[in-house]
Amino acid sequence: LADTYFLFSGLIGRSWAMVFASGGFKVKLYDIEQQQLKSALENIRKQMKEMEESGSLKGPLSAEQQLALISVCTDLKAAVEGATFIQECTPENLELKKKIFGQLDLIVGDNVILSSSTSCLLPSKLFTGLKHVKQCIVSHPVNPPYFVPLVEIVPHPETDPSTTERTYALMKKIGQSPVKLNREIEGFVLNRLQYAVISEAWRLVGEGVISPTDLDLVMSDGLGMRYAFIGPLETMHLNAEG
């Protein structure tokens, strides 16, 4: 089994680790803080055991089998060894992310994919100037990735098409729902759609058209029920007589 490797063990890193372990992949969690790694493993174990008991654990493996696939590391070089896919999960700080990818750029080979979990930083800002830029991509999950399958795959202008295809195939293999953006755009797609709805929600409430409680009901008991399984374009296509 190929190794997958996650930079930093916060909420997103832990959730990603659980998703990949559920798909049978070896996972290394890297962090500079040993205590952070220890608490991450404890948290993952607790969540997996609870889900196993409730019958909601993902994948064919038991919780113990999945936990056995996850190891931790505080040494970057040792962590990267054997990895074929690296998912960066540091806070949304451009300089921090650029520093991390700069370090990775010096130690990875030509086959590993360097992927970022960023929700808003453009690939051109993250990866430009790296010698392994063709292997770089954004894989933006929806929090928490373990329960929400969508992953936005956003290439840098110089990302090799094979990097995109390999990332897409990997996400499908672990049970996520990847979508490919043909080019980068501010906010990607999920947040652009979300912000359009939020903007109109503020306007309708602000102008006194509807109360905040009723506005939320329009989504939760109306549009949201439809959009939970069918998108806006398919809705228009199938409306009324289809």
From TrEMBL:
InterPro entries, sorted: 3-OHacyl-CoA_DH, 3-OHacyl-CoA_DH_CS, 3-OHacyl-CoA_DH_NAD-bd, 3HC_DH_C, 6-PGluconate_DH-like_C_sf, 6PGD_dom2, NAD(P)-bd_dom_sf
SUPFAM superfamilies: 6-phosphogluconate dehydrogenase C-terminal domain-like, NAD(P)-binding Rossmann-fold domains
Residue span, 3-hydroxyacyl-CoA dehydrogenase C-terminal domain: 187-240
Matches recorded under Pfam families: 3HCDH (PF00725), 3HCDH_N (PF02737)
EC number: 1.1.1.45
UniProt feature coiled coil, ranges: 27-54
GO biological process: fatty acid metabolic process
Residues flagged as site, Important for catalytic activity: 140
Entry GO terms, CC: cytoplasm
Subcellular localization(s) per the UniProt record: Cytoplasm
Keywords: Coiled coil, Cytoplasm, NAD, Oxidoreductase, Phosphoprotein
Transmembrane segments: none
Stretches assigned to the 3-hydroxyacyl-CoA dehydrogenase NAD binding domain: 9-182
GO molecular function list: L-gulonate 3-dehydrogenase activity; NAD+ binding
Domain of life the protein comes from: Eukaryota
PROSITE patterns assigned to the protein according to its UniProt record, in alphabetical order: 3HCDH (PS00067)
First-listed, main subcellular location of the protein, grouped into a coarse class: cytoplasm
Enzyme class: oxidoreductase
Recorded family membership: Belongs to the 3-hydroxyacyl-CoA dehydrogenase family.
Subunit structure: Homodimer.
Protein name per its UniProtKB record: L-gulonate 3-dehydrogenase
Gene name in the database record: Cryl1
